[in-house]
Structure formats: C-alpha cells, structure tokens
C-alpha cells in the first residue's frame, strides 16, 4: 500500500524554478549517502527551505533528521494510532486558521487533562512529533511558525513526572533545534506562573542561543499582543476565531487521515547507520548531559 507520505503536499507539485539547481545538488549528494533513504524532490525542497537554501546546512539537517529518528525508536517508531488517538484526549494541539501579519502559522499546545497521573511523557512527545509532521505535510512551504505553549493546568506533579524522562527531554531539544525542517519564528509561553523558573532550569542548558532569543514568557495575554495579534487567537482566549476545543476536534480528523502512515513510519523514516560512508559522525544523542540533569533540583 502506498503511504500518505508527509511533505508530498500538492502545493509542491511544481518546484520553484529558481531552486531547481539547489534540489539537484542535494540529490547528487544523496547519491553518495547510502545510509539515507530516498527523498522526493518535494521533501528535499522542504529541507532547503527550512535552511534558507544553504546547501551545507541542508545536508547536515537531512543527516541529523534521519539519524536522530533512527537513534530514538522510543520516540519515532510505533506511532500506534490508538495511542495517538488517546493522547488527543489528554493534550490539546491546534493549528490556528489565521496567520500573523508576517504570514507565520500559529500552533497552540496545552493540557486538556490536567491530572499529572495521566501524563506519559514519551507518548506525549510521540503525539507532538506526529502532529508536527502532519502540519508540515498539510501546510507545504511556509514563511515560518510561531508556537504558543499555554501553561494553564500545569502543576508540580507534572514537573516531577517529566524529570524522570530527562533523556527524552534532551532528545526532544536536539530534534527541534537540529533536525526539524521548519522555520521557527517564535516560542511563546503563556499563563506562566511560579514553576516557570524551575522548568527553564531543566531545559535552558539544552537550548542553543538562537532558540533562547525566540523564547518569550507571558504571565497573561497582554504582552503576547506585541508578537501575535490577539484577534488571531481562539474565542476562549478573547480572539475572533472558533474555540480551541472545536479546532482541536477538527484537526483530530485531519490526523486520522494519516493514521496508516503513522503506523508504518518506523520503517520509512530511518537511516541505516551501518552503511554510512567514511568515519561515523559523533552521535547526536548520547549521555554526556546526564550528570547535569542529576544536579538539577526541583525542591
């Protein structure tokens, strides 16, 4: 059965003429990378676009992308549809229908079920990655994304559970910063509260300076308006579009159309690292930060 393959959006059927040589150069490079799977021209174009058409950055990102997805099977394989369907009852993941004045798409994430005992962190990350892959496939090439994380409902109980998955947190940060083929334009944490400093103490050691510059904290929505016009938000945030829950339910139906692809993803988005030509690259995912995690306190 032919998979519904992300990054094969009809919007990319005709490649931009000015970048055909860029695609050809990456295609030629891939011919000498036997450890990497075959990529369509549309998929190559996605990586080029996310790397602002830098050939070297694109090569590194493609290699990172498949290497990390291979090294982290606990996060990138066995995307069982029943698991993801259940996760959508615990976490809200919503693409907002209107873009910012710059043309950036807005993604909103928050807890739907605030009971810490229902947080299974690796399952949450699987669902997050699946959601974002679907969005890339649906959106095609876009100027960028602005991400909103709503902290409402987050408690010390959630934080304690997350600290038992610090290696997964590290892998998440590596993937988002070094592999994910999108242009990230802003990360806004809204409804912050006293725990935010403890949360940041866990993740800031893993953040590159570029990502730190994109990070903005908002105790309420008044300061968010400087970056994202509040009328673009759902009605339950005071905006002019549908309520978050309705948008969430609508996007669940979109996710369902990718269920076959998700369940077969593990065999299609892997590198065969034994076939890598030349010296092995340093592992992107290792244990070198484990000691620093153990030294962090959440008292």
Explain how this protein is built.
The protein is α/β, with parallel strands linked by helices and 299 residues long. The chain has two domains: 14-75 and 265-294, no CATH class; 79-256, Phosphatidylinositol Transfer Protein Sec14p (3-Layer(aba) Sandwich). It is 42% helix and 10% strand. The chain has 13 helices and five strands. It has helices spanning 20-30, 41-50, 55-71, 73-76, 81-87, 121-139, 156-163, 166-178, 196-203, 209-214, 244-256, 259-264, 290-294, and strands at 91-95, 105-111, 145-150, 184-190, 215-218. Strands 1-2-3-4-5 form a five-stranded mixed β-sheet. Strand 2, helix 6 and strand 3 (145-150) form a beta-alpha-beta unit. The longest helix is centred in the middle third of the chain and has 19 residues, at 121-139.
Q: What's the multimeric state? A: single chain
Q: Sketch the topology as an H/E string, one letter per element.
A: HHHHHEEHEHHEHHEHHH
Shape: globular
Label the structural class.
alpha/beta
> Count of DSSP E strands?
5
CATH class of the largest domain: Alpha Beta
Query: If you consult CATH, what is the topology of the largest domain?
Result: Phosphatidylinositol Transfer Protein Sec14p
CATH homologous superfamily caption of the largest domain: CRAL-TRIO lipid binding domain
Helix content: 40-55%
Total domains: 2
Concise overview:
It contains 13 helices and five strands. By secondary structure, it is α/β, with parallel strands linked by helices. It has two domains: 92 residues, no CATH class; 178 residues, 3-Layer(aba) Sandwich (Phosphatidylinositol Transfer Protein Sec14p).
